[in-house]
Amino acid sequence: MKSRDQEYRELFMAEALEYYDAMSRHLSELERNPQDTEALNELFRLMHNLKANARAMGFVDMGEVAHKMETLFGQIRGQERTFTGSLVPLTFGAVDTLGNMIRAVGAGQESADAHTLLDNLERLIQGEEPIQAATEQTTEEADADAGRKLELSDLVYIPVKKLDNLLNLVGELVIDRDRILTLAAEIGNAALQTTAQHLFRISDDLQYSVMDVRLVGAGVLLNKFPRVVRDVAAAENKQVELTLAGQDVQIDRNVLQLITDALLHIVRNGVSHGLEDAATRVAAGKPPVGQLRISALTERDDVLIQVQDDGRGINTEAVRQKAIRKGVVTADAAALLDEEGVWMLLFEAGFSMAEKITDISGRGVGLDVVKLAIDSLGGRLRVNSELGKGTTFTLVLPTSIAVKGALLVELDARAYAVPLLHTDTVLALHADEIFAVGGLLMTRVQEENVPLVPLRQLLYVEGDEPLPRATRADLPPDDTLHQVLVVSYNNRRLGLIVDRFLRQQSIVVKPLSKPLDTIDLFGGVTLLGSGQLCLVLDVPALTRLFLTKRP
């Protein structure tokens, strides 16, 4: 497997060689027509980009040559000089030198000494003539020009839409593969089973290879936030120091795209609501400059994006009372919420702790977009806060949204898939482990009371009808084991009573077609190896339905 440094070097090489080809082309255009503004602007842009990329990779001489060339083309753009005389051959020679430097990077070799070229470029910048006349060429000469080879990059750029289409095709292949494996086992033909197993290995490798191509560093998104934080801090008259970490953590590009707005809201919220102004911080015994940290890290098969501040923390009681006043939750229900439950109220639609409307907050559009984005990915959200010390928001995201791990359960002889990201544990309960409180069935899981509900009731509930009140008399005889899948969403656990557990497997989720896509209890559909269609349960939607319909 390639190291990340090697991958970055190859990406740099691919882009730098494209720059080199474009520079040569635009230089020729500029030589033919020194008034060609478009060619001049492109040369300036290409030199600027190569300078930045080379310096970021630690290629000092390459960055310096590009920097001085950028300065020269800037002078031409500013009409301080014209593209004539010794400037012409020297810039062509400088571009050739850049090409040699780029090829040396690809070959892992030291590039040729560039001091003479840099001195000559500096003399031109200062309005002096080069030390050596660049117009004089020896017989041996870059002869070498006549025998120059044309080169193509080993890397290609692929539009994301093409990768999406390829992944969809691989998903179809995986579905058919599972059907072939099932048929081979039913027929019992040894040769067919061997071929089916070979197909399984190849398709598995293909699937993960395509998924790997779609992975990008989290820095693609994280590196956009210094400017965001700077602008919000300026608008709020606050001093903020931003730290980024984990830019190399790999995540599916589509996942990153879907959380962009969510992360933006959390970061803006951290600066606007989380961090205090300098005077307030000093009065509280803190440094005047607030600290904000955005980091990416891995946890098992998930990627975590964390936004951490050392601000005022969440005032739990203030949130509880504001939610009651806003009608987000009743006073009785709010009183039963623990600290984490209250914090989750911040993500309800239209809820805001802002006392006044500004360009940053208070317009009724805020953290609810975070929950919607996380739900759409099948992810989770964690909040941890300490009053006066700060708050940490953690987005738990799948590495890829193309293939999901799922637990298959059976209800009324039909299979349903539950994403593993939301599964907490599975239980087989005797009747004496279940008790009824206030019309709800409950059980104890890890020192916590967890409500139980038959999955059948949630799927078949109609209109505005509440769930029926439950008593122990509704339970089957004591010798019956009740199969319970405990799911988790927004730090709330819910036990779903099912007929039986089938198995755990990876699934390819397809969206439901119209008009079924309006049923929010299902997050999509997949095809099992038997050819049976299997609905994918939307755990967040089921949890919200239970909270709405509970007796």
TrEMBL record:
<dbReference type="Pfam" id="PF01584">
    <property type="entry name" value="CheW"/>
</dbReference>
<dbReference type="Pfam" id="PF02518">
    <property type="entry name" value="HATPase_c"/>
</dbReference>
<protein>
    <recommendedName>
        <fullName>Chemotaxis protein CheA</fullName>
        <ecNumber>2.7.13.3</ecNumber>
    </recommendedName>
</protein>
<dbReference type="GO" id="GO:0005524">
    <property type="term" value="F:ATP binding"/>
</dbReference>
<dbReference type="InterPro" id="IPR051315">
    <property type="entry name" value="Bact_Chemotaxis_CheA"/>
</dbReference>
<keyword id="KW-0808">Transferase</keyword>
<feature type="domain" description="Histidine kinase">
    <location>
        <begin position="151"/>
        <end position="401"/>
    </location>
</feature>
<feature type="domain" description="CheW-like">
    <location>
        <begin position="403"/>
        <end position="548"/>
    </location>
</feature>
<dbReference type="InterPro" id="IPR004105">
    <property type="entry name" value="CheA-like_dim"/>
</dbReference>
<dbReference type="InterPro" id="IPR008207">
    <property type="entry name" value="Sig_transdc_His_kin_Hpt_dom"/>
</dbReference>
<keyword id="KW-0902">Two-component regulatory system</keyword>
<dbReference type="InterPro" id="IPR036097">
    <property type="entry name" value="HisK_dim/P_sf"/>
</dbReference>
<dbReference type="GO" id="GO:0000155">
    <property type="term" value="F:phosphorelay sensor kinase activity"/>
</dbReference>
<dbReference type="InterPro" id="IPR036890">
    <property type="entry name" value="HATPase_C_sf"/>
</dbReference>
<dbReference type="GO" id="GO:0006935">
    <property type="term" value="P:chemotaxis"/>
</dbReference>
<keyword id="KW-0418">Kinase</keyword>
<dbReference type="GO" id="GO:0005737">
    <property type="term" value="C:cytoplasm"/>
</dbReference>
<dbReference type="InterPro" id="IPR003594">
    <property type="entry name" value="HATPase_dom"/>
</dbReference>
<keyword id="KW-0547">Nucleotide-binding</keyword>
<feature type="domain" description="HPt">
    <location>
        <begin position="1"/>
        <end position="105"/>
    </location>
</feature>
<dbReference type="InterPro" id="IPR002545">
    <property type="entry name" value="CheW-lke_dom"/>
</dbReference>
<dbReference type="Pfam" id="PF01627">
    <property type="entry name" value="Hpt"/>
</dbReference>
<dbReference type="Pfam" id="PF02895">
    <property type="entry name" value="H-kinase_dim"/>
</dbReference>
<comment type="function">
    <text>Involved in the transmission of sensory signals from the chemoreceptors to the flagellar motors. CheA is autophosphorylated; it can transfer its phosphate group to either CheB or CheY.</text>
</comment>
<dbReference type="InterPro" id="IPR036061">
    <property type="entry name" value="CheW-like_dom_sf"/>
</dbReference>
<keyword id="KW-0597">Phosphoprotein</keyword>
<dbReference type="InterPro" id="IPR037006">
    <property type="entry name" value="CheA-like_homodim_sf"/>
</dbReference>
<keyword id="KW-0145">Chemotaxis</keyword>
<keyword id="KW-0067">ATP-binding</keyword>
<dbReference type="InterPro" id="IPR005467">
    <property type="entry name" value="His_kinase_dom"/>
</dbReference>
<dbReference type="InterPro" id="IPR036641">
    <property type="entry name" value="HPT_dom_sf"/>
</dbReference>
<dbReference type="InterPro" id="IPR004358">
    <property type="entry name" value="Sig_transdc_His_kin-like_C"/>
</dbReference>
<feature type="modified residue" description="Phosphohistidine">
    <location>
        <position position="48"/>
    </location>
</feature>
